[in-house]
Amino acid sequence: MKFLNFKYCLIIILPIINLSCATNPVSGTPDFVTITEQQEISIGASYHSKILGENNIVKNKELNDYFQKLGNEIARNSHRPDLKWTFTLIDDPTFNAFATPGGYIYMYRGMLNFFNSEAEFAGVIGHEIGHVTARHAVRGMSTAQVTNLLLGIIQSNVPGGQLTSNAFNLMNIIVNRGYGRKFELEADKLGEEYLIRNNYDPSAMSAFLKILKDSDELEKRIAKKENREPHIGYHGIFSTHPDSEKRIKELKADRKGDKKFKNNKEKFLKLLDGSIYGSSPEEGYVKDSFFYHPILAIKFNIDKSWVFKNEPQRLLLTKKEDRIILNADELLADDLENGLTPKKYLENGVNKTNFLNTNKLIETKDFSYNNLKGHTHLYKNENIVSTSYKRFIVIFDTETGSIKPKAWIANIDLSDLSNDKQAKDMLKTFSKMSKTEVSNSKGLRIKVIRFREDMTYEKLAKSSPLGEFAIDKLRLLNGHYPNKNPKIGDLIKIVQ
After folding, report:
1. What are 28-37's pLDDT values in tens digits?
2. Is the pTM of this model over 0.85?
3. Cα–Cα distance, 253 to 247 (Å, whole number)
4. How distant, in Å, are the alpha carbons of 329, 349, 357, 409 from that of 354?
5. In the beta sheet, which residues pair with residue 467?
6. Nearest to 479 by CA among 91, 251, 487
């Protein structure tokens, strides 16, 4: 489990809006903005400190140094080379990257694994740099301020000034949803331009845009099979992008006979060899339908019909309207020595709330499995409009070695009882990992191999931990979705 919960103070400042006419660094045309460059840098610095405080950063020094070096090279040939650029790899399996004002570029580890050349990586870096050079966030914030969506921007005009709550909310929206079609297309174009300025093959932009679209397409297929809503990836905007391939081909055609562009495919793939795929082992990961957390030494099965998310300080499983929230609470040895049981823990916790005023206890049972003591309560909430259910399951984990004993609490919301058995069956598999399982627990890793004559994606999928859609996922990982194949001798990525 990881920390991704952005916290902020509710600070409201009455606005003094000073509309100014500034020249856009990219277009050279006037921008009517309310934010100075100094304020822009302060906003970025403030948001950056929150990101660092709430996220784990990739520990691989080689990858971090590589990202910073490549990013700086591209930024030096951008429209704002004098900004102090900061490039950060977030240790998270999410397929995303984003930029914030003042020269701060972020990429999630989960996106990194889908690049198939340094040129593709550079293209997305250039795209994100383009958001900053064209002042997309600043223009968006200025518009919001003029229309009274923001009550002030930052507390002070000095670097490090704190964002107001409204400005911080807007930055979160930008991070999660992108900048909108117009700005995304402009950043696309700038990404292509920065590739050429740095002598990279501009078609790499088109290649990765296709991977992004293919990723959304595959996710929609999987979601339909699993009867759930799809989780669309990067900026949530590329699924609606017009095809950039024609535009880039024309761009290359205009430069026919010019010096050769670089791609650096093998160099980049060798760098990815051995990198983490999916969740970090330290945060817990899913393999073969089981969630493993080697630090806490626990595991349990996840039914494939449920959508699983490893969220900040909790695990979340959803199936349509129903959901399971699983988190942990530390137990005092003194309480355990004086007779605290899962049943007493559950009763004490519920009785301390107003929960019983509106909910009726209809079931209380022992829930001890796999040498772990547990208990469960099922409550019914019935009113004129609807009937719903809430089940609590508490499991004591007292064999924790050097880690403090814990109570694992499953908070289960049920619209009816149709998924109740499934939820219980998953929690019945909750158990301790063996010492061998812990010592061998390295999570899923990228392995770069050379494609040989006897290989096919179908054969590779049979030994893959990627599950039912392994063939499609392997093809997507290598830019071959839906039905392309590598050439003999090509380097490709598999997951082990």
Report:
1. 887 777 788 8
2. no
3. 10
4. 20, 11, 6, 18
5. none
6. 487
